[in-house]
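Chain A, query sequence.
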Amino acid sequence: QVQLVESGGGLVQAGGSLRLSCAASGLSFSSYAMGWFRQAPGKEREFVARISWSHMTYYADSVKGRFTISRDNGKNMVYLQMNSLKLEDTAVYYCAASRILTITATNYNYWGQGTQVTVSS
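Chain A, predicted structure.
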C-alpha cells in the first residue's frame, strides 16, 4: 500500500529553522507531484508548497522566500526546509502526492499523517 511518512517536526524558537522530511513508498515516486500542506487548530488546511516530477516549484505567498521544497527521486524523499520561522507557522504539516500538478488539496491522491511544528517566542 502507499505510505507517506513525515518526520522532522518539533519545537523551535521564532527565527529558527527546521527541515521536514517525507518518505514515500508503494508508488512510482518520480511520476508524482509532491506537496506540503499545513493545518492549525480551528483553521482549514492550507497549501504551503509543491514540486513537480521535474523539480518545478511553487509556494504560498506566506512562506515564499523562507521555505524551500525539494525532492530526491532516487531516495523517494521530499523535503521542506523552513527558515526564519514565525509564530504563525505553528501547525501540523502534511505531505501529499498527486498525479497532476496542482495546489488544490482535493486533487491529491495520498496523504501522510502529519508532523507537528511548534514555533515559540
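Residues 28 and 84 are 33 Å apart (CA to CA). The chain is about 0% helix and 50% strand.
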